[in-house]
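The protein record minuted underneath.
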Amino acid sequence: MPAKKKSAAKKTSAKKKSSGKKYSPKASKSVKREVRAMKKGTLKSGRSGKKVTSRKQAIAIGLSEARKSGAKVPAKKKKSSKS
């Protein structure tokens, strides 16, 4: 008896993959500049003027400045309120 071949049904994901880049080159330059300033020790935060020591905070500052200058950057994620 010949062996039966099983048909391999491929599952398609429900999510649609986005085409194109999320961040513009201008945004990445802004982030690069801020991270370098943080490493150098010259990056200050907001009103307090304290020195930034966190890499994540430096990236956030860079993206924020890129948004202000009109670069293509996704919107900030909304915080969900817990009751």
